[in-house]
Amino acid sequence: MTTTAAVVGASGYGGGELIRFLDAHPEFSTGILGAHSKAGSTLGQVHPHLAGGNRELVSFEPDRFAEVDVAFLALPHGASAKPAMQLLERGVKVVDLGSDFRLSTPQRYLEAYGAEHPYPDQLGEWAYGIPELFADAVVASDRVSAPGCYPTSAVLAIAPMAAGGLIGLEGIVVDALSGVSGAGRGVSEATSFGAIDESVKAYKILQHRHQPEMMQAIGDYSGAPVELVFTPHLVPMQRGILSTIYMTVTEGTTIHDIHTAFDKVYGDQPFVRLSEVPPETRWVVGSNNALISYHLDEASHRLIAVSAIDNLVKGAAGQAVQCANLMFGFDQGAGLPTEGWMP
Amino acid sequence: MTTTAAVVGASGYGGGELIRFLDAHPEFSTGILGAHSKAGSTLGQVHPHLAGGNRELVSFEPDRFAEVDVAFLALPHGASAKPAMQLLERGVKVVDLGSDFRLSTPQRYLEAYGAEHPYPDQLGEWAYGIPELFADAVVASDRVSAPGCYPTSAVLAIAPMAAGGLIGLEGIVVDALSGVSGAGRGVSEATSFGAIDESVKAYKILQHRHQPEMMQAIGDYSGAPVELVFTPHLVPMQRGILSTIYMTVTEGTTIHDIHTAFDKVYGDQPFVRLSEVPPETRWVVGSNNALISYHLDEASHRLIAVSAIDNLVKGAAGQAVQCANLMFGFDQGAGLPTEGWMP
Amino acid sequence: MTTTAAVVGASGYGGGELIRFLDAHPEFSTGILGAHSKAGSTLGQVHPHLAGGNRELVSFEPDRFAEVDVAFLALPHGASAKPAMQLLERGVKVVDLGSDFRLSTPQRYLEAYGAEHPYPDQLGEWAYGIPELFADAVVASDRVSAPGCYPTSAVLAIAPMAAGGLIGLEGIVVDALSGVSGAGRGVSEATSFGAIDESVKAYKILQHRHQPEMMQAIGDYSGAPVELVFTPHLVPMQRGILSTIYMTVTEGTTIHDIHTAFDKVYGDQPFVRLSEVPPETRWVVGSNNALISYHLDEASHRLIAVSAIDNLVKGAAGQAVQCANLMFGFDQGAGLPTEGWMP
Amino acid sequence: MTTTAAVVGASGYGGGELIRFLDAHPEFSTGILGAHSKAGSTLGQVHPHLAGGNRELVSFEPDRFAEVDVAFLALPHGASAKPAMQLLERGVKVVDLGSDFRLSTPQRYLEAYGAEHPYPDQLGEWAYGIPELFADAVVASDRVSAPGCYPTSAVLAIAPMAAGGLIGLEGIVVDALSGVSGAGRGVSEATSFGAIDESVKAYKILQHRHQPEMMQAIGDYSGAPVELVFTPHLVPMQRGILSTIYMTVTEGTTIHDIHTAFDKVYGDQPFVRLSEVPPETRWVVGSNNALISYHLDEASHRLIAVSAIDNLVKGAAGQAVQCANLMFGFDQGAGLPTEGWMP
What we know:
4 copies of one chain form a homotetramer.
Chain A: E1 3-8, H1 13-23, E2 28-34, H2 43-46, E3 57-58, H3 62-65, E4 70-73, H4 81-89, E5 93-96, H5 106-113, E6 127-128, H6 131-140, E7 143-145, H7 149-163, E8 172-178, H8 193-196, E9 201-202, H9 210-222, E10 228-234, E11 241-248, H10 255-266, E12 272-274, E13 290-297, E14 302-309, H11 313-327
């Protein structure tokens, strides 16, 4: 008897990747597919690269979608809270790829999103789905909030250093570059080919909602509150995130200490690996891998980390499936690619 | 007991894809990896996107490589003939991704390549590895010559029409666009980012060696010799081939006849499918699929076909594995992706 | 006293290029700028790459725009006919970059566009603005219809051969690749970065309205009606068109004959030049140049031409200014770039 | 009588841009063109986008090149010192686009480049060619060292703030993204299309020689030594640099103070402008402009600047011509584009 999985928000990029992973998964089988404006379309119309193109996308209805064991929600911000609660009430486990349940207090949510949360009691009740850092919570929970793509890349690199007491907790800079799929599949002039190709830009400077998410996750893991500034950039490529992170190390810290702290957390992990040289995003795109390098200038105590992931895989759909694997007792890597696509 | 496969020419793009497919294959296991100038490197140094990065690339030696059941040769033109024969002598089945054994007579080889073939008796002895058209020969043979990427895309679209007597056999035009990985991984000014990005060009006009290969394959399948002209173009993307093919139909032929002829050949095939609209390369890139559309102007008797494949998958490594699957009695689709990567 | 020029449709790509050329022009000065949905915006808001960003875009009103000597209309199909007539009535010369007045009979217009023309008497009264072929008409006229980008690239290559009686007039194939700016600046999923980057596609197969335009222009120049089929493709780059054109030559025609026919037409022309090797679009992008190569297979009588232009310059704004230069008695190259931007 | 200019290193990207600007310059005329490995080629062979393709590239010989009034040297590091001195001895003014004379003491040179300078007495004798900051030195000198592309973008943004005492002088982070033309035209696997397209990477972390150059220039202008860390990244585009710069402001500093300090330095300058929103590189590519925005978080005292230039124009050839204009008493903007190319 297979375990069935629904995808709500099947027409977007994240939804497409979820379906691709589920279609090839040894344990999950792809169940009902939900869409909003694309309801009534076939899968082939919205994702012509996927097999089974005659599968239909249907509008979300809680009773109908409750037939599955787990639902992946890949919806715009603010749209997952209600269906998530409806599914949980009906005994369906939920992995939310959106940002509705990532922040753990109503106050943080209000500050980041400028609005009251519709289910404030839920904040803090969801596991934050970076399995390498919060596996116990993920395993134990029926509701997991999959992290943002930028936070995944940054938190993986910073958290072990903060937990090990190796870095100063203030003045961290996260400067990140993202492929355009991170902006979603919605149509806008800002993501037109004419606006993106052959150009780069920074956006949402000092205002991006992934900044408080990063701070919370690092603080939760390390037990120490950190202060950081995060600037996202859009670069002309489909996939991939590269975060270059500037920290200062505590007196006497060596690169060996850094690597030891890394191995202590990730030594047994299949997807997060140390790179001796600065990783390129094409080394991870297509896989669920994260590659991280560290570069220390002992004289100035500067520590620079470079962290590369595929924003749609380890930064979204892959990590969501990884969480679901743990929630159902499967191998955490089941159905997930460990080899990328380069070129 | 698994069946083991060697890759000779492991450091190129085709070699990397072969390893990726073999690593995930349910029947084959990845065996010894051969390289020439990169011998002594680890896999991680040449393909940092692949797992098992500490595997070593070694120089080809026939006795050492004879330990496997099948060898995939992904070598520059002219380099596969000798190792192929050495391996065959030692009982190893061979799939050659190069062009050494594609043409079936010494005369054709001489005309196309301007040199005598070192093993002229072998020409005509190799199965031409488009499984959808020449499955019997592939199944029965221990030596298969995997087709060129351009011929795969063009022959799949033309051969059923020629075999069905639906098209004129002269004056066919194949105008094809390729991603840059088709030019291989060798370093040259012509494939530098500065020369490729934001530009397109035609090359080898009236001179490309894939033209006689196309004519031979269509003729072999249909029993009728065809005359065509082929112009390849380089476009700024990594992967994908799109061939736009201009034919004329015989009097009275309808689009229904075209579709019927297509279904007769490919109706049961998992990888070659009819598209109602002109396919885009991103719909197939990452998969072993070929998508083909036909467009008929009944007034002028013009038939235009558009054929899309991933040059490194259906056009190279994927099709080579598909052939090997048949050679060993496995399901022809074993280990091969049926879903692409878009975006 | 300078000659003033208005741009109607200033917010699009073609409008932006017109302003750029006019701002640097030795004879014309940039006058009033018209826009539709962007009326009320500043130039800096829609074209942040241009100087004088505080210039305002205003709604078109015939009396107000009649203050200039010449108006360039860069509007969507169907939108230029009325303002063109209003300006002409007020004594303003007009260069229309749209397609409203390109076809020379109401019947052709009806067949191509599926609608009656609002000013049928005007069809045939406009000069077709390829100065190298129709200079006399352009010089003598107060109304010029600037050609489509695809027709410019194809007609320049074919017309001299047809006029010289060197090619068969049937069965010509024009297979063309365009950068995405050719699709205009309107926002759509089809021109989003996610849909364009790393992919190619053919579109409007057997249906593109530039096909009858090409046939008409070649016929008008050569006096002989030609039959051709045209397939446009979109490739992932901003600018540039490459047309690969398949013809057959009449018995006995040599490559020398081809070159002689070319020189006869373009020998004195500054912008249209013969290339010995297939031109790459990056060799012309940024300039008003057209580069064309010819490749003859004497055995099969096949002649292949490759023609490269910048779709926004020689294919639109540059050629429009070139026409206006002639209409006002200026040097035809005034203000137009003869050197491209590569890389 | 025109002023003549030689280009030494004419075959590279910087050389090509110099020729393009000089060909269109109202005061300079393009004189002799020097090349090393490409000596004997025509201009058309190395820069098919430029006019006058039959001009020949010749080997550098000091007496022959001494016929011009000014020489632009666009050579690899280490190659300009000798020809620069030979030309100066012969009375030719020199603008060196390389890095040989940028650092002002032998000690700094030794630390940055790991070698003794061949003409140590020259260090400190060359004007550092950012005209907006060091115009007096440029005007008065016959030898100008044009800055690196990354330093141009960073120094323009930081120097006025340091000079105004508005920022802390330690802990500055310069995180910069560059198009691939910044790596020069040499052929390498690292700049092949396969390695660059659809990927980003950081390189030379903690080791890039532009870091001491930035610190020196800011210190020289402001009179205060600054400490900063610089990380360059390569992104898949031809041109453009975007630097995102993290500073801290002194207590009480407002965004108004920042803008006032900016205007004080650049208020009269044609090429360096304040942007209210984060600039995109496509807004400046093709022009000699620099666009800079500032973003202040008063609570944390963080100041983020975003600075965009075209690396080959304001970051190289354009700025070099701007310096030469001043050296000869021409308008500093003569011959330089103030409008970019977007798209």
